[in-house]
Predict the structure.
Amino acid sequence: MPSPDSRALLHFASKNALDIAGLGDKLVDLLLFKNLVHIPTDLYRLTSMDLERLPRLGKKSALNLATALEKSKTAPLWRFIHALGIRHVGEHTSQILADHFPSLTALSQAPREKLTTLNEIGPEVAGALIDYFHDPLNKNFLADLTGDELKIKPTPPKTTPSSLLTDRKFVLTGALTHFTRTEVKARLAALGAHVLNTVSQETDYVVAGEGAGGKLTRALSLSIPILSETDFLQLIQRVQK
């Protein structure tokens, strides 16, 4: 079972966070054992000599890791938010936040009332964000981290063309066989639509795969249009014509 330090470091470096290639669990454990790192900020203070001295790493692997660390300094904002490991804030939520705030500073200063106006950001997520950014230890950590020459890329303004699905709200339920959920979300986002987690009277469509359950029942009770995967594809094709 990894220690809390190693979990934080591994999450920070993971593919869907800052994507620091080559920084796996064995290397993290070794860096901790050698007292070279304890928290993510320490990663950016590692020298080439530190890395080359590590057993079984080798000069080439040390160079590759140094390159990956340097590359991670210019990560997009959503990756940086996700890397922080804030409770209830995963990859998808990080992307939503990065779409609405131009910088980490703007996000850290956002009041609870503004956060809860965003799609899919409920009181629980907003509370976790407020708690994180108001914690003195986290404030010091972020000041230290962003002082290590990190250049966080802001999310570029969306230029989604107007379409018949702009601002339409979709909910996905059941097992999809022809598309992954990531593919469906990407297609809808490209057309200006939103994918939500829960069915409500504001939902415009429910895409139902095999084994759809409570969300489908809820949609039927509210007379919300139900789309099979074939219906969904036909809808997308009509809109894109």
